[in-house]
Amino acid sequence: MKGNNTIYKEENNVEVRDIISLNLPNAPEYVSIARLTLSGIASRMGFNIEDIEDLKVAVAEACTNAIKHGCGKDRNYSIEFLVLKDKLRIEIIDGGKGFDYKKVKEPDLTKPREGGLGLYIIKTLMDEVQIFNNQKNCGTRIIMSKNLGES
Amino acid sequence: MILNIKDQFDEEKGRWLIELEGEADVYTVNNFKERMHQLLDEKMADVEIDGTSLQYIDSIGLGALIGLRGRMADQEKVLIIKNIQPNVRKLLNITGLDKIFIIEQED
Ligand SMILES: Nc1ncnc2c1ncn2[C@@H]1O[C@H](COP(=O)(O)OP(=O)(O)OP(=O)(O)O)[C@@H](O)[C@H]1O
Ligand SMILES: [Mg+2]
To answer: Any idea what DSSP says for residue A27?
Structure first.
């Protein structure tokens, strides 16, 4: 998987302190578990309340996308929380149909429509966002990070 | 998670008063949409949403509000949102919806 190289290279220079993994059914009623887990981890790390809210929203948006667009029925998707020295990185991985991120248009904020806000919200709230979907029908991996003690 | 919806028609103001309590997200949104459309079927009027106890909203919840506003705008009715929490406000700001909905803060 060529496109993934950057990530692993970067990981070599980054001290991953802890990894927490969640594997959730493809069903909306469990998204709140991802949010709760996130709150627990982020407050332990010392994120402030506003940052924790941002993280919660971003993670929930990615989970919702995994459910709504990603996985087929009766499949699970997974979430990994990587506790780094001064940031929290979260990866949401689904085995669904994947999509071409470059083709997703930014929402026109002057003409609101239903739908198309999730990725925009994620990008606004997180410090870094990367999306990987190297092959068709091989799912999506969205990686996002937020730095501790900024803002 | 739960979203409780209380509704009441204010004859004086001629508008629906809706109190939302809980979380408007992917899980609760369908119920919310259904309920709001039923109310508008019953009586097409302005809607005032009180967000004092709305703890959380996601893109799908925002989408539901956009859809609702669309239906009401066709009938020249307005959607008013008041007393929202800072986290909800932040999402309205970053999505530009603060300029689309009528937002009233009461403090
Ligand atoms: N995990 C995923 N798998 C497949 N496609 C995805 C995934 N995440 C996003 N997409 C695609 O990217 C588009 C934009 O996603 P985004 O979250 O911004 O909007 P949305 O989910 O359509 O609507 P909203 O988030 O406002 O409810 C989606 O419509 C979908 O086509
Ligand atoms: Mg989405």
So the answer is: S
Name the architecture of domain B3-104.
Answer: 2-Layer Sandwich (3.30)
State whether A117 and B1 contact (CB < 8 Å).
no
Q: What is the ipTM of this complex?
A: 0.89
Closest CA–CA distance from residue B93 to any residue of chain A (Å): 10
In a structure prediction context, what are the per-residue pLDDT tens digits for chain B, which is 107 residues long? 799 999 999 999 999 999 999 999 989 999 999 999 999 999 999 999 999 999 999 999 999 999 999 999 999 999 999 999 999 999 999 999 999 999 998 76
Burial class (CB in 10 A: 0-12, 13-18, 19+), A151: exposed
For chain A, the residues whose C-beta falls within 8 A of a C-beta of chain B are 28-29, 31-32, 50, 53-54, 56-57, 60-61, 64, 67-68, 107, 109-110, 112-115, 117-118, 120-121, 124-125
Enumerate the domain spans of chain B.
3-104
Report residues whose beta carbon is within 6 angstroms of any ligand 1 atom: A 65-66, 68-70, 94, 96-99, 104, 115-120, 140; B 59-60, 63
Q: Which residues contact B29 (CB under 8 A, 6 or more apart)?
A: B60, B61, B63, B64
What does the domain layout of chain A look like in residue ranges?
Answer: 16-147
Domain range A16-147, CATH architecture = 2-Layer Sandwich (3.30)
